[in-house]
Amino acid sequence: MVLHPAPEPARPVVAILHGALVDLFPGIERRVALDAATVDELIDALDARWPGMRDRICDSRPAIRRHMNVFVDGRRATLDTPLKPGDEVFILTAISGG
Amino acid sequence: MAERVLLLVGTKKGAFILEGDTTRRSWALRGPFCETWPMNHVVGDAATGTIYAGGGNEWFGPAVWKTSDFGKSWSHSSAGLAYDAGAEPIKSVWSLASGHDRLYAGVEPAGLFSSDDGGETWRHISGLSDHPSRADWHAGGGGLILHSLVPHPVDKDQIWVGISAAGVFHTADGGRTWQPRNRGTRADFLPDDQRYPEYGQCVHCLVIAPQMPERLYQQNHCGMYRSHDGGRSWESIEAGLPSSFGFPAATHPRDPSTLYLVPLNGDMHGRYMPDGKAAVWRTRDAGQSWADLREGLPQQDVYYGVYRQALATDDLDPAGVYFGSSTGALYASADEGESWQQIAEHLPAILSVETMVIRT
Questions:
Q1: How many Cα atoms are found within 13 Å in the side-chain-facing hemisphere of B359?
Q2: Any chain B CB within 8 A of the CB of A20?
Q3: Residue ranges of the domains in chain B?
Q4: Mean per-residue pLDDT for B272-300?
Q5: What chain B residue is nearest to A19 in terms of C-alpha separation?
Q6: What's the mean per-residue pLDDT of chain B?
Q7: How do beta strands A88-93 and A12-17 pair?
Q8: If you average pLDDT over residues B280-308, what whole number do you get?
């Protein structure tokens, strides 16, 4: 008999989306509660709710886009950054353009 | 029959639409659209009225935008518009073309995608990226971009593409296999004994003649060329032009021997209008002779350029001709280039101009 570890329970976190990203998806909320154990899962959850959002935040490496910033606990996160219940995840645009 | 003439303009800061009637004397401007993303190419499908805009944004990546109500509302998608994990991600969409109920997108880094559902989802045509020469493709000044997309008007399996700086490639089997088609075009930036390679040329713009699908024209970084055999061989048609350097080319809607160009003063000399005087150049004999068209264009202190997709014709009779400048000026001719009128002056840098005539 093979014992499998119990799956990680989903964790309630809050995503806070920057205005320019919100503008690309008319009608969405700036603050949204989701269940996710990592930033990657959080972005998947956002994409499930608003199809296409993952492509705006992440590239195909896959990685968070160079000029996008995801902050967790005040620090820049990667897709692998773990989340704990109650975390607020800020998804922002970095300085860029011309 | 009512006819609406739309100019579809891609700029460094969004897409714009200008609308006029068949007199093409007065225009109404709308925009910027697409959240002011850089839009490299905006094209229209006159049969459905759908407009597609391809570009990329430093923050949010590449996408093809779409409107079915002439710009009132837009959606965007890049579903499937991606290389495999681990590969260099797509930076932006550079060119769009429709053919045989399919939409094609050329991207940076150079590659080709297709959509069978009007731009909602995309599929990588991997045969081009798998070409044995791929490792030798080098970026030009604008990046490693697939900027010219020419579906065959009759045979759905044939497509030509232009890539800077890899050259012209052609498929006859729907994209599974590709062949370089650059024989006779120069690469002045290579050593003397390597100036006519099989591939690696810096094609700037590739267009196909109406009614004659074996006749192609290309403005190259190093010369102006015509092919009579679908690109298997090329011959120079730059004699009579003020410069062998320029970016765009545009065919006449009906006459395969009429072509429009905007020669610039040279790749190492500023890339602006020769002698600071704006002109579009036209041949009526497939490049054997050229005439400069200047009436109504500024003839003093013109130091702008015209990018590779920023020259277009419409399909009215007489044909309209249009070009946009790197400084955001837009010009129109309603008489095949004989006379010109400035119709916008202060747009962002203009990256592309296309036309769509709606008949109802």
A1: 5
A2: yes
A3: 46-313
A4: 98
A5: B35
A6: 97
A7: parallel
A8: 98
